[in-house]
Amino acid sequence: MGNDSYSEAMLGDGPRSRVVIVGAGHGGANAAAFLRQKGFGGEVILIGEEPVMPYQRPPLSKAYIADHMSVEDLYLKPTQFYRDQGIELRLGTRVAEVNPEGKFVSFSDGTTLEYDVLILATGAAPRSLDVPGSDLTGIQELRTIADAGRLRDLIPSSGHLVVVGGGYIGLEVAAVCQTNGVRVTVIEREDRLLARVASVELSKVLTAYHQERGTNILTSDSVVGFAGGADGAVRSVILSDGTEIACGGVLTGIGAVPCDALACGAGLHCDNGIVVDEQSRTSDRWIFAIGDVTRRPLPNRTDLFRMESIPSAVEQAGQAVAAIMGGPQPKPEVPWFWSDQFNLKLKMAGLVHEGEEVIARNSLEGFKIAFFHVRGENVVAVETINSPGEFMAGKRFIEKNARVDLTKLADSSVPLQGVLV
Ligand SMILES: Cc1cc2nc3c(=O)[nH]c(=O)nc-3n(C[C@H](O)[C@H](O)[C@H](O)COP(=O)(O)OP(=O)(O)OC[C@H]3O[C@@H](n4cnc5c(N)ncnc54)[C@H](O)[C@@H]3O)c2cc1C
């Protein structure tokens, strides 16, 4: 161990250099793979608390709970990949503490592991709904494969599932229920669905689409408790106005909180997530942080963001590895995200802010529509449904800060390359 120089490349390529990655999710597994891709020849140790091979989370609220995927289908890479690449996996193992002065992590059994460089990729955890009755059985959150297994069993037996929280995860699960003939009610505290992350326009389209397929949507309503039967299972959800909604199961999807306790305990700069720079460095020069656990800068923004998305975690894995290896930084990517609900493929790029001018392209009929958010003549965000061309073009316009003709943009008979000024 012990490479104290902080040269262009942080680590020598020798077999004694060691990168330890805590968190074997999307960010951590990609960082390990990128290290090898970039030719790092030292030790790579990937530690994950979950006793499962690194896997994709997005299908957990989509195809996996609809019973269309096996556990193996979810794996990010086949088991052999880690062997071939010499990536040591320590699964079912929780890191209890980080000691930045001694450059080691420790485990609950008192053992320790030294590192030259540490990458924290500990993700986020579901925000808990702390109301009376929340410990009843049949109330489920969704983050891990284990949660998804329980939800998959719960959905058909529930008869009526209540989803608390009208965000993307809640709506995806609602769509799966509805498609499988299970009655579903979505309860959202704000006055519209996706209030935190989507425009009013997109939110209206999705609300109508879900309602037309039978989903009961209640907005401006909050859950104040759950009531259960003698068997300890949830029987109803109680709203703030006293209304009780009978149900056989509940999914809570009210957001996620960063798992930054290790970093905070180690004295790293944390502020609702581990604060990192454009290269995913923390306030300790030997420690990087990536993915949902971070609050990160974005191009052309002065404030920091918590971007909970696969593209963001993968981009940061690339940034950290480039910094560790002393290579060129990857080109900054416009933040983007996707969601699947019924037969709607949603793709969004850029950040949506209320009050911006919104230009719709295509129509609601056929459910192929794009909402371009513009400031002056520049597209700053785009939200699309079943419109991959508009998504790609919109993302490119944002990236290039391109000027567009707003009248042409609204006219779907004008090809997208023809809307540039
Ligand atoms: C149901 C669901 C659906 C989603 N759908 C989409 C989607 O459609 N599109 C999209 O872009 N994003 C989606 N996301 C978000 C996406 O999955 C996350 O942004 C991504 O997984 C973040 O990767 P990460 O590596 O930061 O965290 P994670 O993938 O959460 O991995 C973190 C890992 O670290 C482990 N860990 C934490 N603490 C410790 C410790 N002390 N010791 C050891 N291990 C530890 C955790 O157990 C976990 O396995 C979805 C998320 C969920 C839950």
Molecular structure report:
By secondary structure, the protein is of the alpha/beta class. It has 10 helices and 25 strands. The chain has helices spanning 26-37, 71-74, 79-84, 145-158, 168-179, 200-212, 261-265, 310-325, 388-400, 406-410; strands spanning 18-22, 43-48, 87-91, 95-99, 104-107, 112-114, 117-120, 124-126, 139-141, 160-164, 183-187, 216-218, 223-228, 234-239, 244-246, 249-252, 256-258, 274-275, 287-289, 294-295, 336-341, 344-350, 357-361, 369-375, 378-385. A 5-stranded parallel β-sheet has the order 3-2-1-7-19. The protein has a 5-stranded parallel β-sheet with strand order 9-16-10-11-12, covered by helices on one side. β10, α5 and β11 (183-187) form a beta-alpha-beta unit. Residues 1-7 have low confidence and may be disordered. The structure holds flavin-adenine dinucleotide.
Short description:
The chain has 421 residues and is of the alpha/beta class.
List keywords for this structure.
alpha/beta, FAD/NAD(P)-binding domain, binds flavin-adenine dinucleotide, Enolase-like, domain 1, disordered N terminus, 421 residues
